[in-house]
Amino acid sequence: MDALISNDVLGESVLEQNGTRVLVVSAKERISLDTCLPQIHAIAARAKPVYGGVLLRGFDALGAGGLDRFVASFGSPLLTYEFGSTPRSRVEKGVYSSTEYPADQWIDQHNEQSYTRKWPATIWFYCEIAAEQGGATPIADSRKVYERLDPALRRLFAERGVMYVRNYGNGLDLPWEQVFGTDDRDEVEAYCRVHRIDLEWLDDGDALRTKQVCQSELRHPVTGETVWFNQAHLFHISNLPLTLRETLLDVVDEDRLPRNTYFGDGTPIDLALLDEIRAVYRDTMLSFDWQPADALLLDNMLMSHGRAPFSGKRRVLVAMTG
Fold first, then answer.
1. Which residues form the TauD/TfdA-like domain (predicted)?
2. Judgement on whether residues 105 and 16 belong to the same structural domain of the protein
3. What is the domain extent for residue 162?
């Protein structure tokens, strides 16, 4: 890391790997973030459109309650985990656990809730406990991902869109009551109408299937740059380990899989295209080891994130705004 700017309290440097960069703001001595909020706000506003992310390091621990207050200080209300796709627990008001998947599983790169038409503008990660080994939250610049993908692939996805098919209530994934935050079918149907989600009640209403066609790319409203913004590769059954994939298909038909993706017209996506997307993400990732009390701010359109496998206890909290 090469120092860029420093003053009596804060220093700035840049972490860069594979073309993805993040600005690091470090406290020169242990201080509370509350003591330098104006500077942090100004740095974040300046750096987000350029780098897509800011890592705050060397400050006093926030804890869940402190994270909630700190994120709220930026002026946008914290969001609930609406129409979520992975198991999380609410920790404090607008603060949640990070995805509660087993420690040995890799979570591929994705922009938060890019499988929908409504997503958070900003996502925060806060490291309360760093894993003994592994457990990074790798990030990748969505502008670089878009640039590095084959233009023919980009055009194909842009023309057709991505259809996300989800099945709930089958014992294999999140129940629909948890995803929609209600056990009232009328409320679920109203939500789906507003968000242009097709739904079908199955098994006398015990199970639910939804289909939604969403974007593959977007133009960032501030920078004007085009970003790759979907989860076609992540939701597709080919993203699962082969043994788990085969086991699932032995148990349920393809249309009953917990989640899967197609082109917007319902036709299958060639596996070679999905492999290319995954390869570009791998070749664009920046990964760093968490330190306790690290806080990472990401523009959710400009930067994707994932999770590396880990051993030992790990506690990373998440908050979303905008």
1. 50-320
2. yes
3. 146-281
